[in-house]
Amino acid sequence: MRSPIPLDLVRLRRSCADCSLRELCLPAGVDRDDMGRLDTMVQRRRSLGRGDSLFRTGDPLHAVYVATNGAFKTVVVNEAGEEHVLGFHLPGELFGLDAIGSGRHRCQAVALGEATVCELPFASLSAVATELPSLQRQLLRVMGQSADRDHDHVDVLSRRQASERVALFLQGLGERYQRIDQPGDDFQLPMSRDEIARYLGLALETVSRGFSRLHEDGVIDVRGRRIRILDAPALQAAASGCEAEVPRGGARRTRA
């Protein structure tokens, strides 16, 4: 059992109150006293480097997490040592919920780069939520969003065409960036092409061809990991498998 970590409540309160992601993590209209109670739940803020694990498969449920900086992937590794990516988690998105049912994590969470997380002990969170209906509603909301992302993943994997999977992934990621008050049409991918391939159930080369085709068709502009969505209706059409129904803004680009 881990030893208690000393809390600097003044620092925690100031940090939560000033955090740009506060409205994503906490219910609106929290008064000063309730904010103090919520602050005390943040057992610690952890900094991780690229490739560091936040929790591993089989670890008992101690806490749930919100990244305040950086992003994470959740993965499982099969008996052959192959990694399958189950999901990606952006700043402000609560994760670690996979352990709520069994009490143990069913996957591993790995930092995609330099990251910082707020660790919320689950027992404390549950206890305070019973006394703060607004927090309870907020938890139900973020759990619903987590379930929506799982459903979206199933939807992606059900698409037969690789081009649809790639387009649907980019469209969904843009929508998630909008929800955290960042541009949904101009963003930096926190994950590699290989990690995207493992998430989409495709070969790396197939994902790269999908990005290239969307770029050449003028649907997106790709510069390394930077993605700019130039034609949102065309991206929607590509994600739906009906690209021919949406006219391009110009002639198809030729490969250099």
TrEMBL record:
Among SUPFAM superfamilies, the record links this protein to: cAMP-binding domain-like (SSF51206), Winged helix' DNA-binding domain (SSF46785)
What keywords are assigned to this protein?
Answer: Activator, Allosteric enzyme, c-di-GMP, DNA-binding, Repressor, Transcription, Transcription regulation, Virulence
List membrane-spanning regions: none
Q: Does the keyword Repressor apply?
A: yes
User: Which CDD domains does this UniProt record tie to the protein?
Assistant: CAP_ED, HTH_CRP
Pfam families named in the record: cNMP_binding (PF00027), HTH_Crp_2 (PF13545)
Q: Which residues form the HTH crp-type domain?
A: 160-233
What is this protein called in UniProt? CRP-like protein Clp
Source organism (scientific name): Thermomonas carbonis
